[in-house]
Design brief:
Length: about 1450
Amino acid sequence: MAPWNSWVCERFDLRSICSQRAIVDGLNLLSVIALTLFFIISIFFVSSPRRNHASSSGEFYRKHFTSVVASICCGFTSIAYIGVGIKNLIIALDHDKGFNNWVLLYFLRALIWCCLSISLLIQRSKWIKIFVSIWWVLFFLMLSALQIEILVIQGDIQIIQVAEWFVSFLLFCCAVRSFVQLFCRNNSEEEASLSEPLINEGIQKDCSEIGSASFYSKLTFAWANDLLRLGYSKILELDDIPNLVHEDEAGSAYERFKEAWNVLLHKENSYSNIIFWSLANLHVKQMVLAGIYIFLRTISIIMAPLLLYAFVNYASNDIESTTKGFYLVGYLVIVKVVESISQRHFYFTSRRIGMQIRSALMVGVYQKQLKLSSLGRKRHSSGEIVNYIAVDAYRMGEFPVWLHLAWSSILQLFLSMILLFWIVGIGTLPGLVPLAVCGILNMPFAKLLKKYQFEFMVAQDKRLRATSEILNSMKVIKLQSWEDNFKNVIQSFRDEEFKWLEQSQHKKTYCTILFWMSPTIVSTAIFFGCIVFKSATLDAGTVFTVLAILKGIQEPVRLIPEILSSIIQVKVSLDRIQSFLLDHEIENERMLKVRPPSSTSTCIEIQNGNFSWDLEFSSPTLIDLHMKVHFGQKVAICGQVASGKSSLLYAILGEIPKICGEVKLFGSIAYVSQASWIQSGTIRDNILYGKEMEKGKYENVIRSCALTEDINSFSHGDLTEIGQRGLNLSGGQKQRIQLARAVYNDADIYLLDDPFSAVDAHTAAILFNDCVMTALEKKTVVLVTHQVEILSSVDQIMVVEGGKITQSGSYDNLLKNSVTFEQLVNAHKDAVNVLEFSTETMKISNGEVEEVNGCSVIKGNNDEEISSKIIPMAQLTKEEEKEVGDLGWKPFSDYILISNGTLFASLSIIAQFTFTVLQAAASYWLAFAIQVPNITGNVLVGVYAVISTIGIIFIYMRSFYANLLGLKASKFFFLGFINSIFKAPMLFFDSTPVGRILTRASSDLGVLDFDIPFAFAFAVCGFIELIVIIAIMAYVTWPILIVAFFAAIATLYVQGYYHASSRELMRINGTTKAPVMNYASETSLGVVTIRAFNTAKRFSENFLKLVDSDAKIFFYNSTALEWLTLRVEAFQNLTLFVGAFLLVLLPKGYLAPGLVGLSLSYALGLSMTQVFLTRWYCSLANYMISVERIKQFMQLPSEPPAILENSRPPNSWPFEGRIDFECLKIRYRPNAPLVLHGITCTFIGGTRVGVAGRTGSGKTTLVSALFRLVEAESGRILIDGLDICSIGLKDLRMKLSIIPQEPTLFNGSIRSNIDPLGLYSDDEIWEALKKCQLNTFINSLPNLLDSSVRDDGENWSAGQRQLLCLGRVLLKRNQILVLDEATASIDSVTDSIIQRIIRQEFSKCTVITIAHRVPTIVDSDKVMVLSFGKLVEYDEPSKLMETDSYFAKLVDEYWSSCRGNSRLGLSMH
């Protein structure tokens, strides 16, 4: 060491500080040489598999954040030594001292620090890691001892030595961490793999570490490190995300909100805006804390120009005072650190408050819909309620941020004006005039934006309401070939919505001109004011301080349009949610008491009851009701269509508004609705309905509800998933699952609304005997039914006519005394008589007739069932697909290319670049011209004003082209999305919950409409501004490029580290939001059932879990963004600090004050610009997830074309209506079992063909094949010799007529429902209504054909809906008519009338009738019998009944079940 020491120091002395430092440097140099040798050896001699193994394990290649920071600090220290070396070299050359050894020593130390930086990043083996860790520890210890000695002996220490010690301490921390990793953790790969799930469990179990985090961890968001580390190492899943702390959970947030809401609601002088004040009272402390954060941030921003002013004055002062310069750098550090931390915590706190508000309102809306009365549901459709949750509640979650930004922006502008007065005095006054003018001009823009936003949301509501309704009824729309019509309906709503969107976006473009002009005009006016009033000299300090102040107010000025727009949106959403929350609730006066002690007790009682669905309508729906039902009774309610039977059940449930009277119930209720309500989930979930599984009880319920064979036929048994609204089940299966749900619930009272209408006679008999009369033997049952054959078995019958209970009594008494009941029985008797002649002589060979509870059913071997082998297959409803991993620039390119927006994007970027360059040129002109005495003040300011004004033109062009790009993208993506949806096959709708489609049509499309255009423009703006700032700083102090280079690398690394998690969080968020919307929509459709079963609490709890799953993704996404931004700000602030430090170190007079002012004025905005770029780039990347999601549904498999121009059938086709099935095989999905097994038969043109078979035998599938809702696996269908697959779908479906199994009506008028395409005159419509028995009812309505029809026709009975569907086919009069259980919900009297009308009107047509009522098909020309998808029989019904055929057995089952009642009816006449 002596030679080395003598080279630097005068003599070798271990007591000398110089010699001790030389020893440290020598040891460091030896370590560098050794590290280099180790590295070379590892490259050439370590086997490749081992390196790959280490890489795959990620043990040495995943760098901790501390290592990255330490590496960057080492790099900065190296740069500092280079700078000191250059400075010493310049001084030596200026004094002609030549090159000295100290300069070389500084460069050598720079090399050592550079190697230390590299050693933190590159560690190729375990031994290298151990070596460098030892080196770091020894270096820290030696340097610490040396620095302490210097401080004790000399009493002073240089700044670079302090910085050096701090960085060595970071190295020591990294070394400790490395030793912990190496020796305290299991090195075995097997143990590591076993422990990984435990680590993940630990993260999950921590339940958001923010609750137990230390002060430092909360300050730096380090508590999110575990999740980000996990996201960097693997693809995140929902289970990886920790749960929220209790105060952030939806349940807690809602309870606090409800309490505050109730307090204000019951105050005498209540506020007009209850929601706002409830939220204000609830979150006042948190809002004050967020206010303190943003106040500190505002003060820090205001302080920055003052520091600039001081720096320029320091540079102008001829007296060199390095200490003062270092003080200024220290102040700058404090100001920027406070600004960074306060701003990050402001956004975090505000978004956390917003999340709590959003969750509380989402739950509040959901809870309200569980209490909403029928009047309220009339005003708020299911689609609108979903919109309140999906759009309005989410928007309210942004309210805290915008509220604080509003007042802080005003405060910042006010303080900036005060600062200007302090700098330039009275010269500020001319600048106030344009500022005031700009402020006044804001008012009309704000009013216009509010109007446009309100109109946009109204139009959006209409579109989403229509979209929801159409998606739920897509099967009917496809059967009728109405796709183009309903797509045009949605498109018309979108056009109206787009009109307001376009107006709003263009007005924001005009606002951009106004707000970018204001700083230029204001600064020009101030400079001229200084010249005129001579209040201040236009030197570098004054000019650049003014520019820095105005540059600082550019952010609030730039945010003002967005703040106004967002607050307007929040106000509109606030009013909409409050209107909903204050709407009419159900007045449930049911008295639910304990189970009655004896069978003589009354369990249902109505006295003097008048009820009306529409209180404004003069005539009540139910009049003068008197009803009493005793415990254990079986009560049947019968009557003709629209007589009020279902409304009577609603009155018992408390669902229909009560005008007068009293309703009393004693006991729990189970309800089975007429229109089946099935939840998404498994069959088992639907039956258990939240109850615990009791195997014996469950199996008994399955058996009594005739579900055993159905469940056995499903590929996954009772774990088979049911599609949205039970789309993959037949009508009979849905009804029986509903009935099983009710039976398993074990209630006291059962209200059954026509549960047998969708099943065949045999199944109906089983359900009545095994379920109603046996399983529910000791229960009270009120049964609405059209099945006359079962009435003799009940205890009491109530006849409803015209909204009144006209007769009540036993079967025998009513036959004697009730005309209406007599008509029902006679109609049934007529139908039975048709069967009697053929069944009297028949003998049942395979079974025997048994009397059970008064009804005859077949026991024994009814038939030889044809079984099919069950092939395991995937569930129908799949998990929502999402992209995984980094897709790079693909989403961006998709956004540009799909919208054909390359030109607009390019022009926007060019305009932004030109604007930024012109702004920099204007500033450079000021810096240059100030130093030239010959340039007058007027010329100085005039040239600046001209350059800046030219720039305003380009910023307008940037905004204009960005808006055009956004509007074009919105239009193209919506068209592609809606076209793809309407062309998708039925399988897509069967397997995709409506909520998934609606979230893309609402929130994802909203991102395309509003967020992406601004995010694109701002990201481009931030990137170009950042480049220009660094270029200007480098022009003044070129070494800053080195720092900027390392800062850029660190920023890119941290962004990549963050984006790995953020990207997946956003994708998961796309899959967590849809279930929330889907569950809300599903609840809205089944709210009557939920209330009847008294399960609202359980549904609310499930909804809370869904909301929390969605909220925790949002919470961690926001946290991760603040984590990233804080660190990116730190890197850029280091660049700023180094730049300021270099300005202080430069010799006096080396730089002109103007250049110092120019550099610092831009440098002060460096961190803000970097944060601005990072935030908007990350936001844009996250917004692109919406582009991915919409694009997924733009690329759906499509149905065959609607029209084939080269293969169109003649206009008169079909000529006869002959249908040939040739070995037809159908399966719904690849690898799924066949549903139809080689059907071969011919339907002769002009004949009536009945299709019979048990539930699930393939009858509806045959219809689907005829209409090509599902394409044939093999075989073909010919209509009049033409293969239906050779023509377009529209040409086929327009030539066929159908009345579907589930009658569907749409929101609108009667006219739009019976004639959606507008093809027929009023006279033709009235004629069709007369034939389908609806003319009398519609004539009683005030608006006749223009009378309203609510969503799903909920203000019409099921029978009326089916009759209106009949009216549709009467108008079309096609050659082929299909009746798919068309009269299932109609009484026998109306059924016989309808059958007569069909025989008359379609006498020359081919009529295919699928029915469970045997009399409906017994007079057909031919009958087809299906069983398990195979054709069992096809012949004339008379021939089939003469033999021991399958059809004969079906007839005999029906006749046997009706025999007792029919004989009673005959004996009375």
